């Protein structure tokens, strides 16, 4: 499992268009918006047939996204190996 949380900066008048576009990106979901600061909070989760990196790139390249900041990232890949080494 891979999950990333992104903060997208955009003009509030473009929030609707961005949210619609983001709904079409696999694993992407808009969780919050702040019109006063011009920020959207978007999470991206991987799934079968697509990666978190691909979805993050799609969020970043979206028309009207002025900037995107990676706020949080989690992966459980490699945890099995780590647990084996610790045993």
UniProtKB/TrEMBL annotation:
Pfam families referenced in this protein's UniProt entry, alphabetically: NapD
Keywords, in A-Z order: Chaperone, Cytoplasm
One cellular-component annotation, GO: cytoplasm
GO biological process: negative regulation of protein transport
Gene3D superfamilies: 3.30.70.920
InterPro entries associated with the record: Chaperone_NapD_NO3_reduct
Cellular localization per UniProt: Cytoplasm
Role this protein plays: Chaperone for NapA, the catalytic subunit of the periplasmic nitrate reductase. It binds directly and specifically to the twin-arginine signal peptide of NapA, preventing premature interaction with the Tat translocase and premature export.
HAMAP family per UniProt: NapD (MF_02200)
Name of protein: Chaperone NapD
Gene designation per UniProt: napD
